[in-house]
Amino acid sequence: DAGVIQSPRHEVTEMGQEVTLRCKPISGHDYLFWYRQTMMRGLELLIYFNNNVPIDDSGMPEDRFSAKMPNASFSTLKIQPSEPRDSAVYFCASSLSGGSNEQYFGPGTRLTVT
Amino acid sequence: AQKITQTQPGMFVQEKEAVTLDCTYDTSDPSYGLFWYKQPSSGEMIFLIYQGSYDQQNATEGRYSLNFQKARKSANLVISASQLGDSAMYFCAMRGDIFGNEKLTFGTGTRLTIIP
User: Fold this and answer.
1) How confident is the model at residue A1, as a pLDDT?
2) Which of B47, B99, B106 is closest, CB to CB, to A102?
3) Strand blocks (E) in chain B
4) What was the pLDDT predicted at A100?
């Protein structure tokens, strides 16, 4: 399997622009997670889905952030409008449910908002 | 609420020595799982080892082992015979084994540097 795929790997945008991050989970995994990593706040869970349905979005910072999972093989995280404080590495991860099943992380998208 | 504490921001260890990375946790869940991930400078998150709270034995995976002390709420990662490639950030994480809950709570990490 190719693992979790994220695109783009790097994104540089200007404040106020819309940013869309994309993720393809591992085939057969029923959970998908979006994380944000910064030096100040560490690794934070933003939202996660089970069978394409959002389960917990309590980590989404504010209304500027939205996430969708239209089917089992694709998810997006959108920021509109973007702000400099959104600069971070955004990880997508997927897993099977429960027990010892670990989350498999994608390579991340490094977002820089100027 | 769950909390993971990693008190060692950074560690320097001589190559070939064993190293212990500390992790303590707090949870009210009766059943839970503990995970360790490695993040090298390239940025990817790599799963290392898992320990279930009701597992009778400490988990081992190659050179990695987990020193699980449930009464002390600690789950320290032990790396034997350290190698230069072990230099990375290491994160401890936990998940409560409640049906439908897949949320991982991560610690702040420990940066391990292996010295030749």
Assistant:
1) 64
2) B47
3) 3-5, 10-14, 19-21, 24-26, 32-39, 46-52, 60-61, 64-69, 74-79, 88-96, 105-106, 110-115
4) 79
